[in-house]
Amino acid sequence: MAKATETILEIDLNALAHNYNYITSKLNPKTKVLAVVKAFGYGSEAVEVAKELIKLNVSYFAVAYASEGEALRNAGIETPILVLHPLPENFDVIVNRCLEPSIYSEKMLNEFISFAEHKNQTNYPIHLKFNTGLNRLGFASKAVSDITHILASTESIKVRSVFSHLAASEDASEAAFTKQQLKEFAVLSEALSEILPYPFLKHTLNTSGIINFPEAQYDMVRTGIGLYGFGNDVQETANLKPVATLKTVISQIHTIAAGESVGYNRAFIAPQAMQTATLPIGHADGISRGYGNGKGWVSIHGQKAPIVGNVCMDMIMVDISKIECKEGDEVIVFGNAPTAEALSEVIHSIPYELLTAISQRVKRVVCRK
Ligand SMILES: *Cc1c(COP(=O)(O)O)cnc(C)c1O
C-alpha cells in the first residue's frame, strides 16, 4: 500500500476474506451466512465488501434501511437482501428492487400484504421478526396464532425466514438470559414450522452468538462485526483481522512555548516547550470530541501521539514532542495498532460506533494486503 497523502479509510478485502473464512469455520457446512452490511458495511464500503462476500459464497445480505438495499441493487448486486427496519414509506422501493422486508408487527404485516396484493405479487418473500427479550423490534411470541391466520388469508406473500435477535450474546454474565431467549425462539419457530405449510429458514445468532452459542445456528447466522474484524472477545478478536485502517498525514508541525495554548477555547496550555502536529481529520470525519484533551491518540511511526486540546471539526492537533517525524508523514488513527476497539474504549465506546462514525467525507480506498 502506498503511504497516505490525505485522510483515507483503507478497506482490506483480504482481511475480510480471512474473517469470513474464520467465522464459517465455526459453523456446520450447511449453515448459510447472512452478512450484515448496514451503515455502509459498518463504515467500510458496502458494495466492495458485498462483492467480495459473494465470491466467498455468502447467501444473504442484511441492511437496516431500504435505501441501503437500493444502493446495493444499483451496484448490480443480485443476492437476496433482508431489510431489517423497513417502514411503510419504503414498501415501493422494497418491492421494486426485490428487497425482502423484516416484518415485525401485525400492523406492518397487514400493510405489507395490502401493498403486495395491490402490486399483484404472489409469494413475495418476507421475514418474520420476533422479540424474545431485546424489546426493540419484533412480534411477541404469543402472536404466532394471530399471524398465522393473517398469513393463511393471502397468496401475496410467503415467509422466507423466521428470526430473532439476541440482547447480550457477548456477555458471559448474561448467558442465562440468552439461553432463555434461545429457548423462546426454539418454541415459537417450532410452532410456526408446524403451522406453515412450507419450509422457511430460522436464524437468531449474530457474531457473538456464533462464538458463544453455536448450538443455536439453525439454518443461517447473521454476522456483522466479526466480518469487519472484531469479536467482542479478546481471544476471538485475536483470530480476526481489522478490515478498516484509518490513515491521515501531518499537515503542519508547530513548536509551542511553555504557557502557550493550543486549539479552540485554549483547552490545552503547554506546561513546557513542545511540538505539535496538525492533522486533517476532525469530528466531522467521525473523531468525536470525546477523544480530545489527551484521551485519544494516534500512531506516528509506531509511537503514541496523544490528541492535544479540543477536537476541531476538520482537524486535530497531537503531541509529537517525543516522536521524530516531519510534515507529510503518515499517521495511523486506527487499524492494527491502535485497533478501533482500543481507541473506542478510551471514551467508553465500542468499535461498532467508531467504525460507523467515519463520515462519507473520508475517501475509502480498497486494497488487498
Ligand atoms: C446489526 C445486526 C446484526 C449483526 O450483529 P453483529 O453483532 O455485528 O454480528 C445481526 N442481526 C440484527 C438484527 C442486527 O440488527
From TrEMBL:
Gene3D superfamilies tied to this protein: Alanine racemase, Lyase, Ornithine Decarboxylase, Chain A, domain 1
NCBIfam families in UniProt: alr (TIGR00492)
Protein name: Alanine racemase
Reaction(s) catalysed by this chain's protein: L-alanine = D-alanine
Gene that this polypeptide is encoded by: alr
The UniProt record lists the keyword Isomerase: yes
Signal sequence region: none
Residue positions, PTM N6-(pyridoxal phosphate)lysine: 38
Active site (catalytic residues): 38 (proton acceptor), 264 (proton acceptor)
Keywords: Isomerase, Pyridoxal phosphate
